[in-house]
Each structure stands twice: as C-alpha cells, then as structure tokens.
Specification:
CATH topology of one domain in chain B: TIM Barrel
Strand order of the largest sheet of chain B: 9-10-11-13-14
CATH class of one domain in chain B: Alpha Beta
Order of helices and strands of chain A: HHHHEHEHEHEHEH
Radius of gyration of chain A: 18 Å
Number of helices of chain B: 17
Distance between the termini of chain A: 38 Å
Structural class of chain B: alpha/beta
Largest sheet of chain B: 5 strands, parallel
Number of strands of chain B: 18
Mean pLDDT of chain B: 96
CATH topology of the largest domain in chain A: Rossmann fold
Oligomer: heterodimer
Shape of chain B: globular
Strand order of the largest sheet of chain A: 2-1-3-4-5
Strand content of chain A: 5-15%
CATH superfamily of the largest domain in chain A: Cobalamin-binding domain
Chain lengths: 221, 492
Amino acid sequence: MASPQIFDAMKAAVIEGNKTEAEQLARQALAQGVSPNDALERGFIPGIRRVGQLWEQGEYFLPELVTSAECMKAVLAVLKPELDKARQKSVLSGKVVIGTVEGDIHDIGKNLVAAMFAANGFEVFDLGADVKLQTFIDKALAVKADFVCLSALLTTTMLNQRRFMGLVKEQSLAGRFKILVGGAPVTKKWAEDIGAHGYAENAMAAVRLALSLSAGAEESS
Amino acid sequence: MISTIRPKLELLSAELVQTIIDEGLAVLETHGIFIENEEALSLFQEAGMKVDGATRRVFIKPLLVEKCLATTPSTIKLYDRRGERSHTIGGDTVHFDPGSAAVKILDHRDQTERGATTDDVVNFVRITDCLDHLHFQSTGLVSGDVPDMIADSYRLYLGLLFSAKPVVTGTFNVAGFQPMRDMLQAVRGGAEELRAKPLAIFDACPSPPLKWSNLTTQSLIDCARAGIPSELISMGMTGATSPVTLAGTLVQHVAENLAGLVIGQLAKPGAPVIFGGSPSSFDMRTGTTPMGAIETMMIDMGYAQIAKSLHLPTHAYMSLSDAKVNDSQSGLETGLGAVLAGLAGINVVSGPGMLNFESCQSLEKLVIDNETCGMVYRLLEGIVQREQPMAKHLFEAIMRGGEFLTLPHTRQWFRKEHVYPRLADRDTYDAWVAAGRKTMNDRAHDEVERLLASRPPDAPAPEVAAELKKIMQAEAARHGLSRLPQVKEFAV
C-alpha cells in the first residue's frame, strides 16, 4: 500500500500549483492501488482547501489560485475514469457546466468563476465563450450537471440568459439542474425576473451560492 | 524671447518603441487576429491576406499594415454642433471628455449608486456643456428607461439636444449605427457635410486577446465609410487577458489596434482613426481592473508614445478613479491621470466624472475634474518668458518701498500666469468653518446646482431638434416604445 508521504506530496503539488507533479502523483497513486476517492480526500482536496484558505487570508493572489485550480482539473482528468469505474459516491462537491452565452466572446470573468469552482472541489465543464444555448443543455444532460452557469458581459447578450430559461421550460427540463447567471450587467433583480436560481457578483460568491443551494437541496430531499 | 518648452514625459526609448511595434507586427503575421465579421474577412481576403475561414483568423502581413498607416490621417478636425468651432486631434493637443459609458450615477443625496434615467443623462450633458476644460462631451451615461436596443442612439440623441460640443460615442449593437449616423447627418444637413465636418467619434473596442467582435468590426467599417472618426479601444488586462508585463501588454495593444486600423483603411482608405485604449493593470487579489493604478497609466503613456511615432492621433482612458465616492482616492487617481495624460500629449482623454471602474458617473466629480483639467492646461503652457527682462527692472521700485501687489506688472500678468480654481479650498481655517465646513464634494454639489439653475440648455435650431426627434421616435417605435420619456422642464 502507498505510504502516507504520497498524500503529503499531492497536497504540496496542488498548493504549489505544480500541474505535472500533481498529474504524475495521481497516476502513481492509481498504480499503487490507492482508491481515487482516497487520493482526493487525503491528498488533493486538503491541498486545494489550503489554497482556498491562503486565498481568503490574502496570501494567495489570482495566478496562484488559478494554477492550483488547474492542477485539480488535471488530477480529476486522471482520477475520474477510475472513480466512475469504482462506482463509489464521489467526494466532489458537484458538477458545474459553465460558459459565456452565444453572441458574447468575453470569457475572463467566466474563467475566474470556473477556477473558483474547481478550487472548491467541483467538477467543472467549461464550454468556453460564444456557446450556443442548446449546447449548455446538451452538456448538462450528458454529464448530469448540478449547475449550469451562464455568463454575459453585454446588456445585449444578457438577453440570452432569459432565452435559455425559455428553452429549459420548452424542453420540460425544469428541476434537472440549477441555473446561475452572472456577468457585468447582470443583477440579482435580473436573475429573479428571468427565474434563474441565483446570481452572484463575483467568483467566490458564485461558489458560496452553489454550496448553499446544494446544501438546501440535500436538506429538502 | 526664449521659446517655451511644452512639458512632456516619455517612458520608452526609441529602440523599445520600435521593438514593441516589430513584435506586434510579428504577432499579427504569425498568430493572426480573430475577426468575427464576414465583410471584414472578405476585405482581408481581397487584400491578399491569409484567412482561416474555420477559425476566422486573419494573418496580416506587415506590408499591408505599412500601406494602411500611410493612408491614415495624422490629424483629425472635430467640429461642434454649429460647425463653427473646431478642435484638432493630433500632435500634442490635449482634449478632455467625460469617461464613457457608465450605467450608474452617484446620487448625491444618499451617496449611493443607482441606475441612470433620462433626467440624469440630460443633467450630465448640460453640466458637461458648461465646463470649459472639457472640450468634448461624451455619451458617458446610459439611460435605463428606454429599451436596451436603443440605449446607444438615445444617449446620442440627448447629447445632441442639450450640448453643442462634439461627441465621443459608440454603438451597443450593429443596428444602432444607422440612426446614430442619421442624427449626426441631420445636424450637419447631409452625408457630405458630416464627412467634411465630423461631429462625433465612435469608440470601437477589440476583445482581448486579439479579437475583433462582429459589432465593433462593423462599427469600424460603417464609420470609415461615413467619414466618422473611429477610436480604437484596445483593453488588455495585465496577466488576465494580456501579458502581465507592461511591455508585453503594449505588444498586444499595438497588434489589436493596428488590426483595427487596417480594417478601417480597407473599408475606406483615408478613414480617420484614433489610436486609443482602455487597458488596465489587473488586480490579482480582487480580479478588478483598476483605472487608477499607476501601471494602467504607464501602459496608456506607452502606447500613446508608440502611436505618436507612427504619426497617429491618440486617445486614452485617464483622469478617472476606482473610488466609489468623491474621496481622497478619487481625487488623487484622477489628478495623477490627468497630469500624466497631459504630459504624454494624449489627444483625447476620456475619464472626468468617472468612478468605480468606468461604471459610474458623478455630476459632482465632473465639475471637480474640470478644475483638475484646467490645472493640466496651465501646466502644459509651461513657464513662459513674458518680458525681456523678466524681473530685474521691477526691483528698483520695490527697493524704494514699492509693493508687488500694486505694480502694473502684477496687474498685467496675474490672471495669465495663474489659474484660480472655483472649488478647491484656499480659505483660511476660520473662513472655511464660517462657510459651513464644506468638503470638496459639498462644494461641487453646490456648483452643479448653480450651473443647472443658471444656464439654459444649449439647444439646436428647432428644425434640427424636430428632425432628431423624428429619427429617435421612429427608432423607439421599432423597438416597442411608443413614447420617448418626457424630459423634465425642457420638453422637446
């Protein structure tokens, strides 16, 4: 069996944002018979949690946060197939499909939100920018997403968030996933008006919102 | 008399300027630029450039950029609504205009931001019209009480109705261009008249890194054909959407803006284009884009110097602040930016009035900033040898017991040599207390009220106003608004 040092190394690799090292450790762990959930729970997730703390304390800045989130993404790519095979209940916080809506090619804000989700143990499916509305739905159904996050920077493309709500209704998909909206012109009131499940002003708030919505869903189920 | 030095500040060596341009050109040639607009893609194809249809990337050869630089005018003349007063944009001239385009206004009563409505926009335009150091107005405040689809043309409509100053503006959607152009032509009395005497500048922003969206590309093409100057607003954010180093961001800035310039020249050789921008130092803690950061201002000064080396008119978003109210931060960031923009000789400086990362306008800040701009103009006049000799002839009288205050020399020069601000506090402590212990923000608000009460709006000729209204009403009706919002007091 694997020595406890490997978990310390995993944690360190994520904290340092060393993607190559983190990927290699994930592979090594599987080769040594460590379960993917163990690797996550004892190694990588404590690492990303520490990154989150360092961020909250103002020690870590965005480049550090985002590169550590990238590590998590790389690690998940290695562990995910095994995790699925093992049919264990995932220790991850949830699945997020995210993108900038069609007609809008701005993606920096969306990228930060995606990174922050990854940094908090969510499995993130980033569809990029100028994403067709139907693509969000198709992806969300394919991966059984918990959340669909729609970003828009322009007042004109923001209208596509409302169109998305219409599409979800038309295709009778209400309740299959929660819909969060964001972007510079988006407000809490707009989110309420179009019937989205939530709005967040920044990346950290988006994660908090998703976590609280997940907790709410678990309580009510 | 000894000639006066125009105070100037440059941050780049000639060698670094050239190296940045060369790297920018290499980026355009090897990595290309994403262009979302079909018409522009065909223009590039016709010009013999390699176009990747699938990824919509255009690879621009340095030779084409050179050819387009040769046809781009180095100066532009902008005329006021009457077609009388003109302003030269080029060389080291400096013109301030309010920062654009805020969706919120700082409400003085409770010092909080709120969405802007028609009345706010009208007040904003009227105040701008009163402020001498703001040579241009801008459609810097967006009214929330009309449909989004006409928000761009509606703000221009109010600008043209309530101020005679030339306008810095832009489209929010492709369909917004036509009514806006029609209004400008209505003021001038025709398409050729507008071409001869441009009244407005249209901002067009590439999306970093290295992307020109359909909307902004179309604006470049439409403006080039109508003879309306385009202002290229590249806006890399260091380390987020552009390289983290200032010099690296300048490389991307040059590549994006030169691509925009080429689009304009391909649409119409000789089209007036201004090399501008709104780049920023990206804050790695908050993920925001501080316009008041010194690095932001350094990037602005850097690209302006590069543009000048290419003999292009220049623009920057400077003299604005990220503060949320009119406090010390707003004053220091605005003041720093205004002074540096002046020293850099940036032709169009957009910023006054702006707070909170280009999202909020404040009428109070606008009048404060006007005073700052006045100080900058004084600075740029430099120290002048007014007389020969300058002083030695004065001391004869002084030594005999005379006073400087009563010298004819003093009376002759004191107003020319010194600027007397209206708002800055220069009272003694007791006088300040007696006047009610007012802060700069309080005094600025008094000034706003005074200006609005004392100056009637500067309206166009009735037939022009009627034509503008006709165009705007038709546009509003097309988007489901049967009646334009009523303008308080000054119904038009």
